[in-house]
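Thread title: Can someone regenerate the structure for this chain?

I was given the following input by a collaborator and told the matching structure tokens would be attached. They weren't. Posting the sequence so someone can regenerate them.
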Amino acid sequence: MYKTPDGKEIFVIDGHIHFWDGSPENQANIHGKQFIECFYAYHTALSPKEQLWEKSKFEKYSEDDLYRDLFIDGPDDMAIIQTTVLSDFYKTGFGCIQRATDMAARAKDRFIVNGSFDPRDGEKALEYIHFMKETYDITGVKMYTAEWNGASKGWRLDDPQAYRCFELCEKLGIKNIHVHKGPTIIPLNKDAFDVHDVDHAATDFQGLNWIVEHCGLPRLDDFCWIAVQETNVYGGLAVALPFIHGRPRYFAEVIAELLFWVGEDKILFGSDYAIWTPQWLVDKFWNFELPEDIKQERGVDLTPEIKEKILGLNAAKLYNIDIEAKRKAFAQSPVQIAAE
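Best answer:
Regenerated them for you:
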């Protein structure tokens, strides 16, 4: 629970976290090494100095690290774990649903574990969606359109194979489709993260919610022009939010554009843990004020009420979370780790 300087308690749902293994032992090739090193470069470039991790810890952190950073020292009440397999780069996968589920079992009411699938797998993808629903009862998935699969270096949301998968997701009640549309990560191809396929998929699948992670950066304009006309498209702040530290003016421009085009009800907080830890992000976000000239030009403001929506209320609506019931339950069972 995050307590504001004036004593108000804000329910925080961290909409984008990972539990990964990018260690050298799990790297299948040079590309696995490149991928985690690119993540680490984002970490070192955009984090406050006092928040920097040693590279070895960053590559593979422990369950206790995660619980401490999110729930004990951190502000999160709940977190949504996004699965990113990258099986071409990692021997046992980068962030897998089973590993995440096992980690979350200690405080399962605080986690939502999303699945993932690759439409290029054809019938096996459909079978796997059934498996994830039956085994884990997932309500959301993470799509990584630039992920490699053999000779293929990416796919589009409007591919016929992808549409078959989304039809099944809608039928099974897997309604929250998180899509990575953000900065390039070595060795993935920048064009495979283009946002234009969101426009097609969101129009054709009105029963699904399309959460565009990283709000399309560096394609913010394209994303905003799509999201303003698609009522089922949302913007995730992971990767955008850390600019609040090193480039606050740039962050102000980004969040003002999102407020102007997408609206305060369709923006979701995400720390992108463990690239960044949530405590400093939430602290800076709550204390952040839009520059006066940006407020005047856009006709928007970032009020405490809007911040509360972004930090948790918007995600609660998407995932049907009863916040008051959760508050009461969590008050009776605080998170602990062995070292505590």
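Residues 14 and 33 are 27 Å apart (CA to CA).
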